[in-house]
Amino acid sequence: MSSKRLYRTEGNCKMVAGVCGGIAEYFDIDPTLVRVGWLIATIATFSLGFWGYLACGVIIPRKSDVYPGY
User: Does the CA dihedral 5-58-32-65 come out positive or negative?
Assistant: First the structure.
């Protein structure tokens, strides 16, 4: 049984901190949809979107930390 782990993407897949790319890989959806949703959340409620992204960028580990040797 393989367990899925949430991580930030690295390399050419990441745009800012890799948070949206990692969330998209975890839920197996297009990263653009996650980025657009996060942009809407940031525009609608600046505090929630901005500070939430910043917190996720600090808390969620990088892919190479979750899967060593990647």
Answer: negative
Q: Are 20 and 31 in contact (CB under 8 A)?
A: yes
One digit per residue, the tens of pLDDT, for the chain of length 70 reads: 468 888 888 877 778 888 999 999 899 999 999 999 989 988 998 788 889 899 999 999 988 888 887 6
Write down the pTM of the prediction: 0.81
- Asked if residue 28 belongs to a domain, the reply is yes
Domain count, the chain: 1
Give the distance between the most distant pair of CA atoms in the chain. Answer: 40
Residue numbers of the domain that contains 37 = 15-62
22 in Cβ contact with 6 (< 8 Å): yes
